[in-house]
Amino acid sequence: LTIMGEARMDPNLSPPDSTAQQDSLFSMTDVFLISLITGLFTYWFFFRKKKEELPDLPKMQTVVAPVRDSSFIEKMKKTGRNIVVFYGSQTGTAEEFANRLSKDAHRYGLRGMAADPEEYDLSDLSRLSEIDKSLAVFCMATYGEGDPTDNAQDFYDWLQEADTDLSGLRFAVFGLGNKTYEHFNAMGKYVDKRLEELGAQRIFELGLGDDDGNLEEDFITWREQFWPAVCEHFGVEATGEESSIRQYELVVHTDVNMNKVYTGEMGRLKSYENQKPPFDAKNPFLAKVTENRKLNEGGERHLMHLELDISNSKIRYESGDHVAVYPANDSSLVNQIGEILGTDLDTVMSLNNLDEESNKKHPFPCPTSYRTALTYYLDITNPPRTNVLYELAQYATDTEEQERLRKMASSAAEGKALYLSWVVEARRNILAILQDMPSLRPPIDHLCELLPRLQARYYSIASSSKVHPNSIHICAVTVEYETKTGRLNKGVATNWLKNKVPDQNGSNSLVPMYVRKSQFRLPFKPSTPVIMIGPGTGVAPFIGFIQERAWLKQQGKEVGETVLYYGCRREREDYLYREELARFQKEGVLTQLNVAFSRDQAEKVYVQHLLKKNKENIWKLVNEGMAHIYVCGDARNMARDVQNTFYEIVSEFGNMSQAQAVDYVKKLMTKGRYSLDVWS
């Protein structure tokens, strides 16, 4: 159009030329307009097609298969199972019990499967009645202060919100807990109660295992009464003696690419060579030890402070969190097992699940060598459970030794007593049992199948990320003791950590680790007073807390009273972080430092005695200052004694009865003002 306008204004154009030009210009316009219309139509056509196709894309991608995969009902129907045993497990024991129960089922003409609740849709419980003679069993461990284990968290959340009718569901629950903890077996009790509330039918009473006593015996006692109840309910009978059934088959690799062989990784092959975040239990970060120093000046024990470098890992932590480390077994123990069993430990093998439908293809990462399995994947230092002894008995060529093993694995009172004294109290690990029973020489592959997994060890972090964003500090004491048989037993993780050498190339300075979040947190307001009670290595998280309060003070924040009650055996021997605590007190961050030296005088003095001494000040901080109380350390004695001391203080200064004082402290716990980070 612009060109046509310009042509009409040109005086030099003759009329014929002008006409010819106009003809030419009109044809160009036609072409332009046609092109424009065609372009618009094409654009509209494709745009319209895309808009029409977009809603179809998700439909095309929504495949039914994953739903089937997450349905344990479909899996049970497909594989002919009628008993499902779910486990909530943090250290592997509940998973082990679930596997034992699912294996038991075949003795009664039933078929069982162990299942991780994290892998399935638990709302399918309402459909379990579609399967004949169906039963759901729950082996549920309680973690921390009455919490579900990591893999049972989603199940717990679902139970809390569910309004599903479970009237067709038959169930039984065995809980794993520890009586030294405030919320003994809270998860087992909750699951048992909640399933009944939703209409499910309990076919056998709740079992409560106590790890502070004899968890194995508690389980066996419950199990030997559980199966008769199942038989009575379904009208079935035991089909015969308990028999040894292998769950995995051995495949030896003679010609294998060593790049395809696991060398200690927890999940992804070569993950230690090619590290990729995020880092967690299945993908730990290899942190370099930058400092490893002895904290105590004397005594028989070795108390240590380690610093792990987490630079470039994107790992974040907060004061009060836990660091989990994956240790390795002592190579001398591994070698001795290999020698006794006459095995080439460097043989590369796989243990493959005979049940092809199982989600668990191997008991540990495969293919690998026996040496790697016994070093990084299997627990060879704890006393084996009775099911391991039962399975191993068939390999004892001496009849007396075979009978002894079978007796210890039985549910008879005499057998239980023998297992308790000869295995548990004598702290006999698998190597000691092999040494003390010369005729017992099982195939190493069956032994590897039976031994439980070596678990990560958790430590309270002894640093603040505000001060040390690229470093995580650990405070630990090496475990070493003589058993009743005269053997020297050593703690796996602490002795392994003790030998980590900073600034040394190679694996000797590396620690596979990840961070586990905790509820052990400083108050939201820095001005809130804190009372910290942590004798021995229980001081660890409080070093982080005090570092953080010092940092907050430097930022110009108003920081409330920071009070520490610490205890150790002797002032000149094992007073941990003495210089650091003195410096914090001098700087005015640590407003009170109360230290109990239990063995420096004739009469033993502990942290609870110092609390009683300062009871008026304690009450004022709690009642008027709204202080937060933190207790870290031994659950069996110290934490209980400290709690009883708080009952006394509250009762005396709050003019309350014992029952009212207990209720007052329990309410502090509910409000997050009395927190525990304890172990037994």
TrEMBL record:
A GO cellular component term found in this entry reads:
cytosol
Molecular function per GO: flavin adenine dinucleotide binding; FMN binding; NADPH-hemoprotein reductase activity
Q: Which residues cross the membrane?
A: 25-46
Which Pfam families does the entry link to?
FAD_binding_1, Flavodoxin_1, NAD_binding_1
**EC number, as in UniProt:** 1.6.2.4
Question: Could you state one GO biological process linked to this protein?
Answer: response to hormone
Name assigned to this protein: NADPH--hemoprotein reductase
List the residue ranges of the region (Disordered).
1-20
Instruction: Tell me which stretches of the chain form a coiled coil.
Output: none
Q: Which cofactor does it need?
A: FAD; FMN
- Ranges for domain FAD-binding FR-type come to 282-523
| Alphabetic keyword roster | Endoplasmic reticulum, FAD, Flavoprotein, FMN, Membrane, NADP, Oxidoreductase, Transmembrane, Transmembrane helix
Q: Which InterPro entries does the UniProt entry name for this protein?
A: CysJ-like_FAD-binding, FAD-bd_FR_type, Flavdoxin-like, Flavodoxin/NO_synth, Flavoprot_Pyr_Nucl_cyt_Rdtase, Flavoprotein-like_sf, FNR_nucleotide-bd, NADPH_Cyt_P450_Rdtase_alpha
Q: Boundaries of each Flavodoxin-like domain copy?
A: 83-227
